[in-house]
Write a structure and sequence with these properties.
binds pyridoxal-5'-phosphate; Aspartate Aminotransferase, domain 2; globular; seven-stranded mixed beta sheet; 9 helices
Length: 355
């Protein structure tokens, strides 16, 4: 049976990307060797990194003066690297979910952290709108897409200080005005590549402004200067990212990804709103087009396990909601097809008809 991958991360990738990466794992560039067994400093691997960086800049229209680096450690390590490199005295954070909170926790080790607003009291079902960012903050940190709660900030916020964003789960799903940010980072395993690589876009002139000493590996300057080659980078995930960046470009770039994301999300949200059993969990105007969260209405709560079983039998993979929210979550990253979301909707309709 055909499976539709709604996993939140690691998650769906285009079939071509998986096949190209798998082929390189068997033999890289007619070298007689696997991608897994060549040196990251090999003459024919350097172009992989160079091309990935070039495509990053092209697809996101990254202005001059920014570097793109590939690291290990996941978005979770960036929660500490960001304040290490950018927080001198005070930083502002918008608390929109578990990941935002984790980022704040690390920042507190380095200086004063101002939580400008939080939606924790409403289980993070909305994006706070009324807040003031202190003008003397070193940066304002946001999580553009809240993977667990299904809320999203899909347009650039106004801020009196440079933005820094965790874009783990919505990078390359829309155009971004990178010039508003000092740094954008994320784990690759949601919308860019397989797990194992972390991307960081950093404004060069914003580096080197803090007075503390930074351990070599945690200093962004190390990786900018060495072009992500200070130590051995995760070569297979970087290769996979390159294949995906090529795929995005061939499909029409981030504008097209944006269009598709909105089209998919509308199909599913329309059904959530229409179907008598379901209700969306996120505030309507803040709904994520990447992670679509919904639950059984209170009066049908006892049917939750039934729907999950039914959907799973129909080939829907990964639609169980995060344990902190419950219910269901359909993650629809770039590679999710219209056919996939229509199959999910058909499943919801059939379930309704059966009960
Ligand atoms: C998944 C996720 C993370 C954690 O990423 P790791 O690479 O596993 O550390 C952080 N932030 C957001 C928004 C995420 O979706």
């Amino acid at each position: 049976m055909k499976k539709y991958n709604f996993n939140a991360g690691p998650s769906i990738l285009p079939r071509e990307v998986i096949e190209a990466t798998a082929a390189a794992c068997l033999e890289f560039n007619n070298s007689g060797l696997s991608l897994m067994e060549i040196s990251h400093r090999a003459k024919d691997f350097q172009p992989v990194v160079d091309e990935a960086v070039a495509l990053f800049k092209e697809l996101l229209d990254i202005p001059q003066g920014y570097s793109v680096i590939f690291l290990g450690g996941g978005a979770s390590l960036e929660f500490c690297m960001v304040p290490y490199n950018f927080l001198e005295k005070k930083a502002a954070y918008l608390n929109t979910g578990v990941w935002a909170k984790k980022a704040m926790k690390e920042a507190k080790l380095f200086g004063e952290v101002v939580e400008v607003a939080s939606s924790a009291e409403a289980t993070y079902t909305y994006i706070p709108k009324d807040f003031t960012v202190p003008a003397d903050a070193d940066y304002f940190h946001i999580t553009t897409n809240n993977t667990i709660y299904g809320t999203e900030i899909r347009k650039e916020l106004d801020s009196p200080v440079p933005l820094i964003a965790d874009m783990s789960s919505d990078i390359f799903s829309r155009p971004v005005d990178v010039s508003k940010y000092n740094c954008i980072y994320g784990g690759a395993q949601k919308n860019l590549s397989m797990a194992g690589v972390t991307f960081v876009i950093v404004k060069d002139e914003a580096l080197g402004k803090v007075s503390r000493q930074i351990p070599t590996m945690l200093d962004y300057r190390t990786h900018v200067e060495k072009g992500s080659m200070f130590n051995t980078p995760p070569v297979v995930p970087i290769y996979c990212a390159l294949q995906n960046l090529k795929w995005i470009k061939a499909q029409g770039g981030v504008k097209e990804m944006d269009r598709r994301a909105n089209e998919r999300a509308k199909i599913v949200y329309d059904e959530i709103d229409r179907n008598k059993f379901f209700r969306g969990t996120a505030n309507e105007e803040d709904r994520s087009v990447m992670n679509l969260c919904f639950v059984m209405k209170d009066e049908y709560k006892e049917l939750e396990a039934d729907f999950l079983k039914f959907a799973t039998e129909k080939g829907m993979v990964g639609v169980k909601g995060h344990r902190s929210v419950g219910g269901f979550r359909a993650s629809c990253y770039n590679a999710m097809t219209i056919e996939g979301v229509k199959a999910l909707v058909a499943c919801m309709k059939e379930f309704e008809a059966n009960h």
